[in-house]
Amino acid sequence: MPTLPPGFRLQRETNTEEFFINMGPQHPSTHGALRLALRMDGETIVELVPHFGYIHRGMEKQAESMSYLQYIALSDRQDYLTAIQNNLGVVIALEKGMNVGVPEKGEYIRVMLQELGRIASHLVFFGCFGGDLGGQTCLLFGFKEREMIHDILEEVTGSRLTTNFFRPGGSRYDVPETFIPRVKAFLDHLEDSMRDYERFLSKNIIVLERSIGIGVLSKEDAIAYGCSGPVLRASGVNFDVRRVNPYSIYDQFDFDIPVFHNGDCYDRYKIRIAEIHESMKILRQCIDKFPKEGPWRSKEKPVRLPEGRYYSEIETAKGLYATYVVAATTGEKPYRIHTRGPSFPHIAALNKMAQGHKISDLVTIMATLDPVIPEIDR
Amino acid sequence: MQENITLIQYFKRYLKRCITGPWSLMCGLSVSLKYFFDPRRIVTEQYPENRKTLKMHERFRGRLEMIEDQDGNNLCTACGMCERACPNASINVLATKNIAGKKVLGRYIYHFASCTQCGLCVEACPFGAIRMNQEFEVATTDPNSLEMILNKKEGQG
Ligand code: SF4
Ligand code: SF4
Q1: What is the DSSP string of A52-121?
Q2: Do B21 and B74 belong to one domain?
Q3: A324 confidence band (pLDDT: 50, 70, 90)
Q4: Nearest chain A CA: its distance from B138 CA (Å)
Q5: Amino acid B3: pLDDT
Q6: Which of A32, A188, A316, A348 lies deepest, with the highest CB count within 10 Å?
Q7: CATH code: domain of residue B117
Q8: Is A347 left (phi over 0), alpha (psi -120 to 50) or beta?
Q9: In this predicted model, what pLDDT tens digit does every residue of A243-277 receive, in sequence order?
């Protein structure tokens, strides 16, 4: 936060020499193998160029030789923090092609797991944000509740991270009987903890000084760069796929889309905290309305798509995740699958945000963008 | 970026933050201390000590195994659906012929090293002949032990 009045500090008259440094690819605060080439003037960033591709796995190419079902398993490995949401994105596109519906209970299972995944991802953000600013206690706080979500996911799907759970027409299993009580107990616990966590970080002077007014992304820039999710909404654009273009049964729930207007790091932090509360609201409504009886999966069919192009978009914790499936012939294999991940545009906008800030602020800005590099590199 | 504030305003704010700043840090510290001393908030598992009681969930995807009865009979018909479903080619089903000339399972070879525990093979099997067990301590120092033959007896099904 630049709080000095004009003329308080001597202006430098001589020009210093600019120099380059690399941040990453092995750097704890780049959240993965990302290299940022920085042109610096002293400690101030003049220009920043991100370099990708250190963990490129060619997933879209691999998909061409895979069956659709296998691609669902592969989508876990894109954004591993929200694997359950990626699954849904792929599955909705396949459902459009196969023309199958989902029974009501299946939809409830979907929405609940989606929101649990969103909370888990935002809790990782909360932890990493604190951790990147130097508070390692915070890192563990965030991961503590996330661990409980992963326990629930493990019981339901069989795996903690790579869930591979949704299938066209529903999901792979029904939820066990303990699911609803567990989620309920977890929500009560989280509500209690979130109060502590907000007390812990939201008013902390170090966080305030290091995030207010840092990395401002204007509304126009956010739209121009194609940002989505919390980053876009923190810049004052009210866009959420759950509201704009509802998928699954999101139109039946009563929840708010939090929007903040400053577009700085602190707003991007606040908006995620607010979204955790909104997700809890959705989960509570789900628990009340959860159908006890009824099928959870429509009749199982072989996953074969007729020729055509199918598109789906969903709102993951990071932003808009879209899948575009091109089926050239009727069959089990796609001709091409393209994925639009949310993190790439955010990193593209990083240059705009970081210019003129100090290098230590770059760490804050990176943390609040919450990028997942494997999702960019794919 | 610079704000348009006077020196007086600046110092006023500075002094105010001298008070509110440490206070906010104390608030944070109180949360830390609360979590440090309250035994109800411990969530870590004492892992190697609780090994006896630690049980994975029923759906946990560990190592692939073949469902066999006591005599080693299994349900596999060597149809190869699991082999085709596997994204990493971790399964080789080698069929053979029994005396009557019927196609039966010879060897069910499983490459654990390349398996990602996705569970697609179990889902694909039309006869329910395989499942994923609850084993999670699968680290080994011998890479050869990761190549397994899952069926004990040849020519079943
Ligand atoms: S679990 Fe997945 S990777 Fe492993 S053998 Fe089965 S299909 Fe292949
Ligand atoms: S395990 Fe199942 S799918 Fe695999 S070959 Fe045997 S019967 Fe076929």
Answers
A1: --TT---HHHHHTTS-HHHHHHHHTTTSGGGHHHHHHHHHHHHHHHHT----HHHHHHHHHHHHHHHHHH
A2: no
A3: very high
A4: 15
A5: 63
A6: A316
A7: 3.30.70.3270
A8: alpha
A9: 888 888 888 888 888 898 888 888 889 899 999 99
Full-model pTM: 0.87
Q: Which domain holds residue B127?
A: 64-149
The answer to ipTM > 0.90 is no
Q: Is the CB of B150 within 6 Å of ligand 1?
A: no
Same domain flag for B37 and B68: no
- Verify that B68 and B36 share a domain, yes or no: no
Distances (CA, A) of A230 to A187, A257, A311, B149: 22, 10, 23, 49
Question: Reduced to 3 states, what is the DSSP secondary structure of residue A37?
Answer: strand
Candidates B76, B84, B91, B123: which one to mutate for ligand 1, based on the most atoms within 8 Å of Cβ? B91
**In sequence order, what E strands does chain A have?**
19-23, 35-41, 44-51, 166-167, 170-171, 308-315, 320-327, 336-340
B31 contact residues in A (CB cutoff 8 A)? 196-197, 199-200
Query: Using an 8 Å Cβ cutoff, are A137 and A144 in contact?
Result: no
Instruction: Answer yes or no: do A200 and B60 touch at CB < 8 A.
Output: no
pLDDT of B155 reads: 57
Distance from C-alpha of A224 to C-alpha of A187, rounded to nearest angstrom: 37
Listed in sequence order, the residues at least 6 apart from A173 whose beta carbon sits closer than 8 Å to its beta carbon are A156, A157, A158, A165, B59
How large is the average pLDDT for residues B110-122? Answer: 88
Comparing CA positions, the residue from A254, A262, A128, A115 lying closest to residue A201 is A128
What's the rounded Cα separation, in Å, for the pair A133 and A126?
11
Q: Are strands A35-41 and A320-327 parallel, antiparallel or unpaired?
A: unpaired
Q: Is A8 at the interface with chain B, CB within 8 A?
A: yes
B128-153 pLDDT, tens digit per residue, is 888 888 888 888 888 888 888 887 76
* Residue-range domain boundaries for chain A: 60-372
Nearest to B155 by CA among B82, B92, B85, B101: B101
How far is C-alpha A23 from the chain's CA centre?
A: 23
Ligand sitting nearest the alpha carbon of B128? 2
Residues B76, B21 share a domain = no
Nearest CB to B21 within list A70, A155, A205 = A205
pLDDT(A24) > 80: no
> What is the predicted pLDDT for the residue at B1?
47
B73 and B29 within one domain: no
- Say whether both B36 and B70 belong to one domain: no
Q: Which of A208, A213, A259 is nearest to A235 (CA)?
A: A259
Residue B14 inside a domain? The answer is yes
Mean of pLDDT values over A84-104? 88
Q: What would the CATH number be for the domain defined by A60-372?
A: 1.10.645.10
Tokens of B25: 């840090």
Angle at A172 between CA A168 and CA A176, to 5 degrees: 140
Q: Is residue B24 part of a domain?
A: yes
Task: Please tell me the total count of domains within chain B.
Answer: 2
